[in-house]
Amino acid sequence: MSKADEKYLDIVEKIIKEGYYSNNRTGIPTYKLPHQIMQFDLNQEFPILTTKFVAFKTAVKELLWIWQLQSNDVRELQKMGCHVWDEWMRPDGTIGKAYGYQIRKFKQVDRLLDMLKSDNQNRRMIVSLWNIEDLPDMSLQPCAFQTLWDVTDDRLNCMLIQRSGDMGLGVPFNMAQYAVLVHLVAQSVGLKPGLFTHVINNAHVYENHIDILKQQLKRRDKALQAPKLLIDPNIHDFYKFTIDDIRLDNYQHLGKLSMEVAV
Ligand SMILES: Nc1nc(=O)c2c([nH]1)NC[C@@H]1CN(c3ccc(C(=O)N[C@@H](CCC(=O)O)C(=O)O)cc3)CN21
Ligand SMILES: O=c1ccn([C@H]2C[C@H](O)[C@@H](COP(=O)(O)O)O2)c(=O)[nH]1
Fold it and tell me: Which residues bind dUMP (predicted)?
């Protein structure tokens, strides 16, 4: 069974059984648990769910939009064929000063790549999208808002801090996305990928996702082996990876489960 299914479904099951019921700004109440953590050794396998289909290409497009294009323009994402931000688009076509905007504003990716190449024992390698001054001008404040990077024994490790995690929709994307990011950054600076630790402060299941997630829990015993992530090995410039250079070999899964997004 894929490790991703095991760790993800453990949290989903715990939230459904023991989670606290509460309301939130969307008006769709959730069951929630604080401080849920998943850790994956990217050297062993790629963390993507097999107990449901995860739209891998769509997820990677969103990742490239934020980290490589460093854009806040939803129309750019739509041009790539990804529509997961449509509901948060402002009349000017953007999501305000959020996500990619904050990476570009402080050249955060360039700084990270430089530090990893020149001083990888630096303990200040952090990319943060949480800019207090700009928070009021974001259509959604970033959820997966901080990554902390470390190099140990020639392996690149990354801890993702997510303040708020929608277990049904956002988290399956985020796990796969940030695992891809670690692989891309590692390949760009000549390191091997290591640990990916995913910390979720408020891990929640929306009430209208419960029945579908229960269906997914029943698939647990049928979970399949994780696919392999294949990245064109000739690319060593972070800005040169395209969506076609990043693919999964033999992604087997138990089929799509549709859920509605709470806006
Ligand atoms: N309530 C909520 N949950 C989220 O996960 C979320 C937000 N809001 N707001 C901002 C972004 C948008 N995200 C989304 C939005 C939609 C899907 C979604 O519909 N996923 C489908 C596949 C979509 C496709 O193939 O295009 C899925 O079945 O996973 C995923 C992530 C993640 N974020
Ligand atoms: O990458 C993402 C982006 C968003 N989410 C989820 C988490 C919450 O359910 C909503 C955001 O609502 P807030 O009230 O701002 O917390 O979106 C996610 O899981 N992953």
Answer: 25, 123-124, 163-166, 174, 204-206
